[in-house]
């Protein structure tokens, strides 16, 4: 019940205080946490664990924000605190007057940096959301370069008789040398570790050893040249991990994972216990003015720095940092054992006030770890800050993540704006084309990221099944590859999926490779003119359109059409109709044909109902003309009903010919007039 309220780091410090008091009570001298032991043996495992398992995607997406907090924020804290403490020393009386500006700036640089050990210990217990965790933890990792530069800079300046402008410029440039030099050392050792793991397939036992050995060598090499050892370790872990995990066996991967966790946990425990013991054993000089001013100005500098920098950062961020986020970032700026060890390294010869500095540093550490560390959990619950959600990644999520990456890269290409998605894609292409072939053995160097992720999930699922005792009742959805990976002796030569044929599997892989991996492949763009249309769908659409047009035309013509309804005219009536416009039916000189007009009585109001279905001359059908037809001349016949399978509208006809248009003019009048009665003659008397 106590551990749910008090963080583990606080309990360990209390244990250290009790152990130190017990040792001192029996008359022995308690051991003190020496800086060499801390920096050479206790700190590297914690940093390597953090760097090797660093969540790379959120870290790179928020790298700009992290760097601003780590570099600008730490510089602001150091100079703001150092300047104010110098003013306090000048006004604080005879006990503080002898502390100069350089000594106060050095003290500010020691106490201003956020400690990664303390942040890890507290933030992993409250399960804060990933964004806030990576911002505070990333800041604590990357501000090491600033702390190292400022510490060595002011330590060197303290031994100078006079500091020139050139010294200040060189000190500013040394920041880039220390930070970038540490990263370069880490990258070199990471690549060497990845290359070495390519040839360890026959000696799997020593695979984890290479990871630890090269990482520790990167740290020592960086410290040897006064570069940032923490940044070297982070760079080595980040660079080597994807290539090493592709080469080593699953047992080696498990060994690395659990050994790093165990090693970092032991180091963290020892650090906090030694902090408690060293507090009891060390020499202290208590000055109320200096200690209280240090604590107060540390909090003020942190809050002001976060507020101002967040106001600036939010102008460029898409996902803005809310006031709640700013409060957690400011409140999570914990100090820890790095500050204590740097203070312990100070030389009495140049810094006679070393004991007072150590007392103030321990006070700030205890306040941040105990007060802020114990109250941050209830404050997170009170403010309803978003917690971390434990979710397992799926193939669906991986596909959509890659799809969005490629989509954003394409949008940047179209816009002509080369943002971080563009450069990330360039780096991925270079990695796939050159680096993977050199550092990964076998066919896995050519395997797409999605397939590799699928293999990893398969292995994880199979192991969970074995551990849960469900090997006898494996569901059909689980691929047999998982079972084969558990017993590699029975692994077949070819990978087989029970639910898919070999051709189908290759087709799926081809689709994934071509569409999800090659972002800038020139694919045929969508064009509605090049689409292959379905002929049945096209014909159906045409028929519907023609029917619709016919109905619209029928509605328009209803007001003007004066054709009698539902009545077949006699020959006399037909002659009278044609007599009203003889030119419309006057045969051409080169034509001997007389048209036979066929009228459709089904819809006499429609102008399309009159159609020239046949223009055969009489006597051309092979039969002699009857005497009645000779007398009648031009015969109007009823249109034959269409067959059941045809469509009147869809079937092409001669309705658009000039003769049809003349027939329409013949049958229509400019204005409406009353229709004749049944017994009434077509031509009125007297005309």
UniProtKB/TrEMBL annotation:
<dbReference type="InterPro" id="IPR032103">
    <property type="entry name" value="NHE_CaM-bd"/>
</dbReference>
<feature type="transmembrane region" description="Helical">
    <location>
        <begin position="216"/>
        <end position="239"/>
    </location>
</feature>
<dbReference type="InterPro" id="IPR006153">
    <property type="entry name" value="Cation/H_exchanger_TM"/>
</dbReference>
<keyword id="KW-0564">Palmitate</keyword>
<keyword id="KW-0915">Sodium</keyword>
<feature type="coiled-coil region">
    <location>
        <begin position="502"/>
        <end position="529"/>
    </location>
</feature>
<keyword id="KW-0813">Transport</keyword>
<feature type="transmembrane region" description="Helical">
    <location>
        <begin position="101"/>
        <end position="122"/>
    </location>
</feature>
<dbReference type="Pfam" id="PF00999">
    <property type="entry name" value="Na_H_Exchanger"/>
</dbReference>
<dbReference type="GO" id="GO:0016323">
    <property type="term" value="C:basolateral plasma membrane"/>
</dbReference>
<dbReference type="GO" id="GO:0005516">
    <property type="term" value="F:calmodulin binding"/>
</dbReference>
<dbReference type="InterPro" id="IPR018422">
    <property type="entry name" value="Cation/H_exchanger_CPA1"/>
</dbReference>
<keyword id="KW-0832">Ubl conjugation</keyword>
<feature type="domain" description="Cation/H+ exchanger transmembrane">
    <location>
        <begin position="6"/>
        <end position="380"/>
    </location>
</feature>
<keyword id="KW-1003">Cell membrane</keyword>
<feature type="transmembrane region" description="Helical">
    <location>
        <begin position="326"/>
        <end position="345"/>
    </location>
</feature>
<keyword id="KW-0175">Coiled coil</keyword>
<feature type="transmembrane region" description="Helical">
    <location>
        <begin position="134"/>
        <end position="154"/>
    </location>
</feature>
<dbReference type="GO" id="GO:0015386">
    <property type="term" value="F:potassium:proton antiporter activity"/>
</dbReference>
<feature type="transmembrane region" description="Helical">
    <location>
        <begin position="166"/>
        <end position="196"/>
    </location>
</feature>
<keyword id="KW-0112">Calmodulin-binding</keyword>
<keyword id="KW-0812">Transmembrane</keyword>
<dbReference type="GO" id="GO:0098719">
    <property type="term" value="P:sodium ion import across plasma membrane"/>
</dbReference>
<feature type="transmembrane region" description="Helical">
    <location>
        <begin position="357"/>
        <end position="380"/>
    </location>
</feature>
<feature type="transmembrane region" description="Helical">
    <location>
        <begin position="6"/>
        <end position="25"/>
    </location>
</feature>
<keyword id="KW-0739">Sodium transport</keyword>
<feature type="transmembrane region" description="Helical">
    <location>
        <begin position="37"/>
        <end position="54"/>
    </location>
</feature>
<feature type="transmembrane region" description="Helical">
    <location>
        <begin position="66"/>
        <end position="89"/>
    </location>
</feature>
<dbReference type="GO" id="GO:0051453">
    <property type="term" value="P:regulation of intracellular pH"/>
</dbReference>
<dbReference type="InterPro" id="IPR001970">
    <property type="entry name" value="NHE-1-like"/>
</dbReference>
<protein>
    <recommendedName>
        <fullName>Sodium/hydrogen exchanger</fullName>
    </recommendedName>
</protein>
<dbReference type="Pfam" id="PF16644">
    <property type="entry name" value="NEXCaM_BD"/>
</dbReference>
<keyword id="KW-0449">Lipoprotein</keyword>
<feature type="transmembrane region" description="Helical">
    <location>
        <begin position="260"/>
        <end position="282"/>
    </location>
</feature>
<feature type="domain" description="Sodium/hydrogen exchanger regulatory region">
    <location>
        <begin position="477"/>
        <end position="564"/>
    </location>
</feature>
<keyword id="KW-0472">Membrane</keyword>
<keyword id="KW-1133">Transmembrane helix</keyword>
<keyword id="KW-0050">Antiport</keyword>
<keyword id="KW-0406">Ion transport</keyword>
<dbReference type="GO" id="GO:0015385">
    <property type="term" value="F:sodium:proton antiporter activity"/>
</dbReference>
<keyword id="KW-0325">Glycoprotein</keyword>
<dbReference type="InterPro" id="IPR004709">
    <property type="entry name" value="NaH_exchanger"/>
</dbReference>
């Amino acid at each position: 019940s106590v551990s749910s309220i008090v963080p583990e780091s606080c309990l360990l410090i209390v244990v250290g205080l009790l152990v130190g008091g017990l040792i001192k009570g029996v008359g022995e001298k308690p051991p003190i946490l020496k800086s060499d032991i801390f920096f050479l043996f206790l700190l590297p495992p914690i940093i390597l664990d953090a760097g090797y398992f660093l969540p790379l995607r959120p870290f790179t997406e928020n790298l700009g924000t992290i760097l601003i907090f780590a570099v600008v924020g730490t510089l602001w804290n150091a100079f703001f605190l150092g300047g104010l403490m110098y003013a306090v020393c000048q006004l604080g009386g005879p006990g503080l007057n002898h502390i100069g500006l350089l000594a106060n700036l050095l003290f500010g640089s020691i106490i201003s940096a956020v400690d990664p050990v303390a942040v890890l210990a507290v933030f992993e217990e409250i399960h804060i959301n990933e964004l806030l965790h990576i911002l505070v933890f990333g800041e604590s990792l990357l501000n090491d370069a600033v702390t190292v530069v400022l510490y060595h800079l002011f330590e060197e300046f303290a031994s100078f008789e006079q500091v020139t402008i050139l010294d200040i410029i060189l000190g500013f440039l040394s920041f880039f040398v220390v930070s970038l030099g540490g990263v370069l050392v880490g990258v070199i050792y990471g690549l060497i570790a990845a290359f070495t793991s390519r040839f360890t397939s026959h000696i799997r036992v020593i695979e984890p050893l290479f990871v630890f050995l090269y990482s520790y060598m990167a740290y020592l090499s960086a410290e040897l040249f006064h570069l940032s050892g923490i940044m070297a370790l982070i760079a080595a872990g980040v660079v080597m991990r994807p290539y090493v995990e592709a080469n080593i066996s699953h047992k080696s991967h498990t060994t690395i994972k659990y050994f790093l966790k165990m090693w970092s946990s032991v180091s963290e425990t020892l650090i906090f216990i030694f902090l408690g013991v060293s507090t009891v054993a060390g020499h202290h000089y208590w000055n109320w003015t200096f200690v209280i001013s240090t604590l107060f100005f540390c909090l003020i500098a942190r809050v002001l720095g976060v507020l101002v920098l967040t106001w600036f950062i939010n102008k460029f961020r898409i996902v803005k940092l809310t006031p709640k986020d700013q409060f957690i970032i400011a409140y999570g700026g914990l100090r820890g054992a790095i500050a204590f060890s740097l203070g312990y390294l100070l030389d009495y010869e140049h810094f006679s006030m070393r004991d007072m500095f150590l007392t103030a540093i321990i006070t700030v550490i205890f306040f941040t770890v105990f007060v802020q560390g114990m109250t941050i959990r209830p404050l997170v619950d009170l403010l309803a800050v978003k917690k971390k959600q434990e979710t397992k990644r799926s193939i669906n999520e991986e596909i959509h993540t890659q799809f969005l990456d490629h989509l954003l890269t394409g949008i940047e290409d179209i816009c002509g704006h080369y943002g971080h998605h563009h450069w990330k894609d360039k780096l991925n292409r270079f990695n796939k084309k050159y680096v993977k072939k050199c550092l990964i053995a076998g066919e896995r160097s050519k395997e797409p990221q999605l397939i590799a992720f699928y293999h990893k999930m398969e292995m994880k699922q199979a192991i969970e099944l074995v551990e849960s005792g469900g090997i006898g009742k494996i569901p059909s959805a689980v691929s047999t590859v998982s079972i084969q990976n558990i017993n590699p002796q029975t692994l077949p030569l070819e990978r087989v999926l029970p639910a898919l044929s070999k051709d189908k599997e290759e087709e799926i892989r081809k689709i994934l490779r071509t569409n999800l991996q090659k972002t800038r492949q020139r694919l045929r763009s969508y064009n509605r003119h090049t689409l292959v249309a379905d002929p049945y769908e096209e014909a159906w659409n045409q028929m519907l359109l023609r029917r619709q047009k016919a109905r619209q035309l029928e509605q328009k013509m209803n007001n003007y059409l004066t054709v009698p309804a539902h009545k077949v005219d006699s020959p006399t009536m037909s002659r009278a109709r044609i007599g009203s416009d003889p030119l419309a039916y006057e045969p051409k000189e080169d034509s001997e044909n007389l048209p036979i007009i066929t009228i459709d009585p089904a819809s006499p109001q429609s102008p399309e109902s009159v159609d020239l279905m046949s223009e055969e001359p009489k006597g051309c059908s092979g039969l002699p003309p009857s005497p009645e037809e000779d007398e009648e001349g031009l015969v109007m016949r009823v249109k034959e009903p269409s067959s059941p399978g045809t469509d009147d509208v869809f079937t092409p006809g001669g309705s658009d010919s000039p003769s049809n248009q003349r027939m329409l003019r013949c049958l229509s009048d400019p204005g409406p007039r009353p229709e004749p009665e049944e017994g009434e003659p077509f031509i009125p008397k007297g005309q």
